[in-house]
Amino acid sequence: MNKYHTMWLSEVEAHQENNIPLPQKSIVLTFDDGFLDNYTVLYPILKAYDFKAVLFVVLGKIGQKIDWGGEFISKNDNMRLMDRTQLEEIGSHIELGYHTYKHDNYAMLTLEEIEEDLKLCQKVIAHEKLKVFPALAYTYGGYYRKKDAKQKALFELLKKYGIRYGLRIGNRINVFPFRNKYQIQRIDIRGGDSFEVFKRKVLLGRKKLL
Predict the structure, then answer these.
(1) Residue 72: its pLDDT value, please?
(2) d(C-alpha 108, C-alpha 4), whole Å
(3) Contact criterion met (CB below 8 Å) for 116 and 109
(4) Less crowded by CB within 10 Å, the N or C end of the chain?
(5) Is a pLDDT exceeding 60 seen at residue 187?
(6) How much is the pTM?
(7) Cβ(46)–Cβ(93) under 8 Å?
């Protein structure tokens, strides 16, 4: 498929740690929450093209119906999240990551509340014996954005709990090696995007879109 090379974050990390350049046209496909249609629709597509992706899971809601609102949230059956068996089954093509315990926005939480969230996430991972790569996608892209002591404390807290990467919504293409592992940027792809807009986002990032 146009010679794009899909990678897991764990593979990107291995390249960074060993000072190995990434393959040409490398891309990390990321998805959030863990909706059931990631199992019924996304997973078969990835298998068909032998693509890889990273799925950031709301760890306290595994196998449950969602209880948060949003622009693209409806009450159909696909608003249920995958269960533990399904999360394990997709492991051939999908790497799991953190997406908080119950879909909270870290920008709205205290450091103490964030620490409790991380503890709960890791408790679920241990109890369910899930293989989860220690990368966190900030829910709603929310974290302490101001570069100050509070932001530094957040990044230190993530490091304390073994989180090695934090992903935000930045709509810019990342420079590799990563400059700040807790501010990795993602390009926001929307279901309503035309194919032309999609291609321009992948090539340039939203910043240069007219």
Answers:
(1) 59
(2) 37
(3) no
(4) C
(5) yes
(6) 0.92
(7) yes
